[in-house]
Design brief:
By secondary structure, the protein is α+β, with helices and mostly antiparallel strands. The protein has 6 domains: 72-233, Beta-Lactamase (2-Layer Sandwich), CATH 3.30.450; 367-467, Beta-Lactamase, CATH 3.30.450.20; 476-554, Orthogonal Bundle (Helix Hairpins); 563-719, Heat Shock Protein 90, CATH 3.30.565.10; 734-869, Rossmann fold (3-Layer(aba) Sandwich); 876-1004, Response regulator (Rossmann fold, 3-Layer(aba) Sandwich). Helices cover 47% and strands 22% of the residues. It contains 31 helices and 36 strands. The strands form 8 sheets. Strands 20, 21, 22, 23, 24, 25 and 26 form a 7-stranded mixed sheet that branches. Strands 1, 6, 7, 8, 9 and 10 form a 6-stranded antiparallel sheet that branches. Helix 1 packs across helix 6, helix 15 packs parallel to helix 16 and helix 19 runs parallel beside helix 25.
Length: 1006
C-alpha cells in the first residue's frame, strides 16, 4: 500500500504544478490582452473626440456664414432669410432653428414693427415674459434684442418677437459677446421639440457694421453691433452624426459641461439614463464598464469647457477575459485534467493489477479446481497447488513446459486448435472435456474451462481444470436410472393397454350377450336380471374408463379437441343424463346459463361434459332427498377472440371438512374411507376433472361448509366461433307449412313477431291466453301447431299458467317444443323453474324493433326448436342407419369366438351380410375370393394382427378406398394413432355400442 500511496501523492503534486503553470499562462495572456485592448480603447476614444470637435465646429460655421448677409446696409427680408437658411436645416443634422436677432434701439422699434407687418405678420410686436411666465408687451428700455426672423417658423411662433434682453442674465451674455466679437455657446437648454431627455444649446454669433481694417476697440464694437445670428442645436443629433460609421455599442460616451452649475452639467450620454448629477451618473455609468477602460478628455468650445468621457462595457472586444482567453484557460485546464486523469488512471490500474494479482494468487492457491496459466503456444507460466494435486506434478516440474503434456495424445491437436481460436477465447471463453494424464500415467476425465486475455500484444490463457471422474459416474447412473424409469413407464403403458384389452374383451361378451338376450322374448324377471347385468357391466366399464382416462393424462396421451359447440346444448345433455338420478332422489336441480355466454364456442364439448357430469354426479350422490343442486355459468372474462367461462356446481349436501378440501383432488383419494363404503367410487373423478380443467386453461376450486353443502368452481377458456347463419340453418330444415302458436297479450309485440316469423316461412296462429290455447287442442283431433311461443309478461301468473297447461296437455303435446320468452332480468329465474321440463326452452324476449343481434338470437332459438321437431328417437335413428346399410357385405376379422357370435347376431339382425375371418391372413385370402363393402378389423390377433393386415390391404390398388373400421379394446391415444397411421378409416371401442357401430359404418359405407 505504501507504493500506491506514493503514486497518488505524485499525481497530486503533478496536478498542483500543472495548475500553477495554467495560472501563469493565464496571467501572461491576460496582461498582453489587457495592454492591447487598452491601447485600442485609447485610440478609439481619441478618434471619437476628434470627430465630436469637428462636428461641433462645422455646426458653428453656419452662423459665421450668415454674418456677412446682415453686416451690410442691405435689409434682408424674411422670405430671403428663409430661402437662405432652409437648405441648411435640411442638409446639416443637429440644427433645430436659425434666427436673426437685430439690435433695436427705442427709437427704431416702430420702424421694425411696421416692416414686419408689411411682410405679412400683422400684429407683430416685441414681447417679453412677466413673472408668471406669460408673454406680455415690451417694457420701456434703451434697446431690444428681439427674435426677428426664425426658421422654421412652425413650432416657434411664441418666440417670434421675443426680446432676448428681457432677461438680465441673457442680456449680459449678449453684451459680452458683442464686446468680444467671439461666437459664444450657451449652457444646455431643454428642447421642447425633442422627445425624451435630449438637450440642446444656443450659439450666438455677433454681427457688426463694417469695422474697417484699423484697430477696433471694445467701444467701437459696442457702437457698430447690429445684432446676432443665433442657432439652436441638438446635442444628440450632432454627436450621432459624428459617431456615424463607428457603430461600436460596447463603447459608451458621455459629454458634460464643466462650466455649468452642478446638476446641469450633463449634455449627452449614450447610456439609457435619465438626467441626474453628472458625478452620480458617471459612477453608475462607469460600473457598466471594465475597470481600467475609461477615458476623460477636456476641450474648449465657443467659451465653454466640456469633457468627453468614454467607457468600455464588459463586452468590449469580448472583454479582457475574451474568447481567446477563455479558450486558453479551457484548453490549459482540460490538458491538465486530462494528464492528471490519465496519470491517475494509470496509477489506479497499476494498483488494481497488483491487487488483482494478489487476489488471483490467493484464489489460485486456495481454489479446489486446478488453475494453469499458459501463452498461446501452451507454455505453462503458473501452476496452482490444486493442479499439483490433480496431476501429481510439482510446479517446478511444469513451468516452461507445454500444456499438452497434461492430456492424452488424441486430444493434443484439439487443444492446440482451441488456443489458436483467440477471438472466441477473449470474448466468451470455452469449456471442453479432455482425457487428462497424470504423472504416474493414469488417465482420467477432466473438464477444462479456458479464457483468454490480451496483455500488451501478447495473449495469456487461464485454464481451470476439474477432475470429473465422480461426475461422470453420477451421469452414467442417472442415464441408467432414466432408461429404467422410461422402461417402467413403457411397461406401465403396455400393462394398461393389455389390461384394457383383456378386461374389455370379456366385458364385450357380457354386454353384447346381455344386449342380444334383451332383444328376445323374456319374462319380466329374466328382463330384470339381464337389465341388472347390463347396468352393472356398464358401471364397471365406467370405472375402467376413469382409470384409463387418468392413465392417459399421466402419460400425456390425452389431448383437448377444438370443435365448434353450443354451451347450452352441453348443459342440456348434462341435465338429460342427470334427470333419472335427480328424479329418483327427489332433489331440486336448476341450471342457470347467463345470457352473456356466446352461443357458439370453439373447444372440447366432450371433455367439458365429462367435467360437468363428474361434478354434478358427485353433487347428486352426496345430496339427500329434497335437497338443492344448482349449475350456473357466467362470463368471467370477455375479449374479441376468446371468453373465459366460470362454472359453479353447488349443492346442499353433506359438505367437506376443511382438512380434506385439498386432498380430494389427489388421485385415488376420498375425504373419508367411509365415503367409499357408503357411496362407492374410485376417487379419480375429481383428479381427472382437475387435469382436464387445467388442460382447458382454467382452474378448479371448492368452497364447502361441513353439514351445509359444497360449491365447486372451475374456469375454462374457449375461443369464439363465428355464428352459423341462422337463415341458412332454418333453410336447411324444411319449415314447409310448420305452424307456430304464439301466446301473448301484447298486440304490438304480436305484430312485430308475426311479421318476422312470416318472413322466415312460418305460419302463425295467435292466441291471447292459456284458455284459448287449450281450446285449440280440444276442438281438433290433431295438434294444429309444431312450435309454441309463450310470452311471459307477468312472471308468477304466466309461469304457473305455462306449467299447468303443459302438464294438462302432456300427452297431446308430446315433444312439441315450447319457447318461453322472458325479459333479460328474469332469464335466470325462469330458466331454473323449467330446467326439468322437457322440451321447454327459456329465451330472452326480443324488442319490437328487433336489433341484428336479437334477430340472430331468435333464429338460433327457432333452429333449436326445429331440431326438436325433426328429432328422432334412438331406435328411429338406428332404423335410418339400417336402411342405409341394408344389403351391405361386411368382412368381420375377429379371433374371439364369442365376439364373432355377438357381432354376427347384431349385424345380421340388421339385414347385413357378414363373412368372418379369424385373423389377418384369413382376411387377405377372403379378399382375393370375394368383394366387400367394408371391413371390421380387430387389432390384436394371432398369425397376423389387424395393423399388419391393414397395411397389406392398402398396398393393393384395388383396396385403396375400401373402408376399414378398427375394433379394439385398447383405447389409449397411441392405439388410436397407430390404427389411423396404418390406414384404418375409423375406430370403434369395445365393448361395442350398437348405435355407434351402425353410425360409424353408415359414415364410411355409401
Amino acid at each position: 500500500m505504501f507504493d500506491g500511496l506514493l503514486r497518488y501523492k505524485i499525481v497530486v503534486l503533478n496536478f498542483i504544478l500543472a495548475m500553477v503553470g495554467v495560472v501563469f499562462v493565464v496571467y501572461v495572456v491576460y496582461s498582453a490582452r489587457f495592454k492591447e485592448t487598452s491601447a485600442r480603447f485609447e485610440s478609439e476614444s481619441l478618434n471619437i473626440l476628434t470627430r465630436l470637435q469637428h462636428s461641433f465646429q462645422s455646426s458653428s460655421l453656419v452662423l459665421k456664414a450668415l454674418r456677412p448677409i446682415f453686416s451690410g446696409d442691405r435689409i434682408l427680408s424674411y422670405g430671403d432669410f428663409i430661402s437662405l437658411t432652409q437648405p441648411l436645416l435640411t442638409d446639416i443634422p443637429g440644427i433645430k432653428a436659425l434666427e436673426w436677432i437685430p439690435r433695436v434701439k427705442q427709437s427704431e422699434v416702430q420702424s421694425y414693427v411696421s416692416a414686419m407687418n408689411r411682410q405679412g405678420f400683422v400684429g407683430f410686436d416685441i414681447t417679453e415674459r412677466n413673472h408668471a411666465g406669460q408673454l406680455v408687451g415690451k417694457s420701456v428700455r434703451g434697446e431690444y434684442y428681439p427674435v426677428y426672423y426664425v426658421v422654421p417658423f412652425l413650432g416657434n411662433e411664441p418666440a417670434h418677437g421675443f426680446d432676448l434682453a428681457s432677461n438680465n442674465t441673457r442680456k449680459l451674455a449678449l453684451k459680452e459677446a458683442g464686446k468680444s466679437g467671439n461666437t459664444t455657446a450657451s449652457s444646455r437648454i431643454t428642447l421642447v421639440q425633442s422627445q425624451g431627455d435630449s438637450f440642446g444649446f444656443l450659439i450666438f454669433c455677433p454681427v457688426y457694421s463694417d469695422l474697417g481694417d484699423g484697430i477696433v476697440t471694445v467701444s467701437d464694437k459696442e457702437e457698430m453691433l447690429k445684432g446676432f445670428t443665433l442657432g439652436v442645436f441638438d446635442f444628440k443629433l450632432i454627436i450621432e452624426r459624428a459617431m456615424a460609421g463607428l457603430n461600436n455599442p460596447n463603447v459608451l460616451i458621455q459629454l458634460v459641461d464643466l462650466s455649468a452649475e452642478a446638476g446641469s452639467q450633463l449634455l449627452y450620454t449614450s447610456a439609457n439614463i435619465s438626467n441626474q448629477d453628472h458625478d452620480d451618473y458617471f459612477f453608475s455609468f462607469f460600473n457598466d464598464g471594465v475597470e481600467g477602460f475609461t477615458n476623460n478628455q477636456d476641450f474648449s468650445f465657443l467659451g465653454r469647457q466640456w469633457r468627453l468621457k468614454t467607457v468600455a462595457t464588459s463586452d468590449y472586444n469580448g472583454g479582457v477575459f475574451s474568447e481567446l482567453l477563455g479558450v486558453v484557460c479551457f484548453s490549459a485546464l482540460s490538458f491538465v485534467l486530462l494528464i492528471t486523469f490519465l496519470t491517475y488512471r494509470g496509477v489506479r490500474a497499476e494498483i488494481k493489477r497488483h491487487e488483482l494479482f494478489l487476489r488471483s494468487a490467493s484464489i489460485i492457491n486456495t481454489v479446489n479446481d486446478g488453475v494453469i496459466l499458459t501463452d498461446q503456444t501452451g507454455l505453462i507460466s503458473e501452476f496452482s497447488p490444486a493442479a499439483e494435486s490433480i496431476f501429481g506434478y510439482l510446479k517446478s516440474d511444469v513451468i516452461g513446459k507445454n500444456f499438452m503434456m497434461l492430456i492424452t495424445k488424441e486430444f493434443s491437436g484439439i487443444c492446440f486448435s482451441i488456443l489458436k481460436s483467440v477471438n472466441a477465447l477473449l470474448t466468451q471463453g470455452g469449456r471442453y472435456e479432455f482425457i487428462g494424464l497424470k504423472k504416474n500415467g493414469e488417465c482420467f476425465p477432466m473438464e477444462c474451462s479456458v479464457k483468454g486475455v490480451s496483455m500488451g500484444g501478447a495473449y495469456q490463457f487461464t485454464h481451470v481444470v476439474r477432475d470429473i471422474t465422480d461426475r461422470k459416474a453420477v451421469e452414467k447412473a442417472t442415464i441408467a436410472a432414466k432408461e429404467s424409469a422410461d422402461a417402467a413407464n413403457q411397461a406401465k403403458s403396455d400393462f394398461l393397454a393389455n389390461m384394457s384389452h383383456e378386461i374389455r374383451t370379456p366385458m364385450t361378451a357380457i354386454i353384447g350377450m346381455a344386449h342380444l338376450a334383451l332383444e328376445t322374448d323374456l319374462s319380466l324377471k329374466q328382463q330384470h336380471y339381464l337389465d341388472v347385468i347390463q347396468r352393472s357391466s356398464m358401471g364397471l366399464l365406467g370405472i375402467i374408463n376413469e382409470i384409463l382416462d387418468f392413465s392417459k393424462i399421466e402419460a400425456n396421451q390425452l389431448s383437448i379437441e377444438k370443435v365448434t359447440f353450443v354451451p347450452e346444448k352441453v348443459l342440456e345433455n348434462v341435465a338429460d343424463l342427470m334427470r333419472e338420478a335427480v328424479t329418483q332422489k327427489e332433489v331440486s336441480f336448476d341450471i342457470d346459463l347467463s345470457p352473456e355466454v356466446p352461443q357458439n364456442l370453439l373447444g372440447d364439448p366432450l371433455r367439458l361434459s365429462q367435467v360437468l357430469i363428474n361434478l354434478t354426479n358427485n353433487a347428486v350422490k352426496f345430496t339427500d332427498a329434497f335437497g338443492k343442486i344448482r349449475v350456473s355459468v357466467d362470463v368471467q372474462e370477455d375479449t374479441a377472440d376468446a371468453v373465459v367461462l366460470c362454472f359453479s356446481i353447488s349443492d346442499s349436501g353433506m359438505g367437506i371438512a376443511p382438512e380434506y378440501q385439498k386432498q380430494i383432488f389427489e388421485p385415488f383419494v376420498q375425504s373419508d374411507t367411509s365415503i367409499t363404503r357408503q357411496y362407492g367410487g374410485t376417487g379419480l373423478g375429481l383428479a381427472i376433472s382437475l387435469r382436464l380443467v387445467e388442460m382447458m386453461g382454467g382452474s378448479l376450486e371448492v368452497e364447502s361448509v361441513l353439514g351445509e353443502g359444497s360449491t365447486f368452481h372451475f374456469t375454462a377458456r374457449f375461443e369464439k366461433a363465428e355464428l352459423i347463419e341462422a337463415r341458412q340453418q332454418l333453410s336447411s330444415l324444411n319449415t314447409g307449412v310448420l305452424t307456430v302458436l304464439l301466446i301473448t297479450e301484447n298486440i304490438e309485440f304480436q305484430k312485430s313477431l308475426v311479421l318476422r316469423l312470416n318472413n322466415l316461412g312460418f305460419k302463425i296462429d295467435c292466441v291471447r291466453s292459456k284458455s284459448q290455447a287449450s281450446n285449440k287442442l280440444e276442438l281438433l283431433d290433431t295438434v294444429p301447431f309444431n312450435i309454441v311461443l309463450w310470452d311471459i309478461e307477468k312472471l308468477d301468473r304466466d309461469t304457473s299458467a305455462l306449467s299447468s297447461w303443459r302438464e294438462m296437455n302432456r300427452y297431446r303435446l308430446g315433444a312439441i317444443p315450447i319457447l318461453a320468452m322472458v325479459e333479460s332480468d328474469n332469464y335466470g329465474r325462469v330458466r331454473g323453474l323449467f330446467s326439468q321440463v322437457d322440451p321447454v326452452k327459456v329465451m330472452i324476449k326480443p324488442s319490437y324493433s328487433m336489433t341484428v343481434q336479437e334477430d340472430s338470437y331468435l333464429r338460433e332459438t327457432l333452429h333449436w326448436a326445429l331440431e326438436q321437431v325433426s328429432f328422432d328417437l334412438p331406435g328411429e335413428k338406428i332404423k335410418d342407419d339400417v336402411n342405409v346399410l341394408s344389403g351391405a357385405q361386411l368382412l368381420l376379422v375377429e379371433d374371439n369366438d364369442i365376439n364373432q357370435e355377438i357381432m354376427i347376431a347384431i349385424l345380421e339382425d340388421k339385414v347385413l351380410s357378414i363373412d368372418v375371418a379369424g385373423n389377418g391372413q384369413e382376411a387377405l385370402d377372403l379378399l382375393e375370393e370375394k368383394s366387400f363393402d367394408g371391413i371390421l378389423m380387430d387389432c390384436q390377433m394371432p398369425v397376423m394382427d389387424g395393423y399388419e393386415a391393414t397395411q397389406k390391404i392398402r398396398a393393393k390398388k384395388e383396396f385403396k378406398d375400401l373402408p376399414i373400421i378398427a375394433l379394439t379394446a385398447n383405447v389409449m391415444l397411441v392405439d388410436r394413432e397407430k390404427a389411423l397411421s396404418v390406414g384404418m378409416n375409423d375406430l370403434v371401442e369395445k365393448p361395442v355400442e350398437v348405435e355407434k357401430l351402425l353410425h360409424t359404418l353408415c359414415k364410411w359405407i355409401v
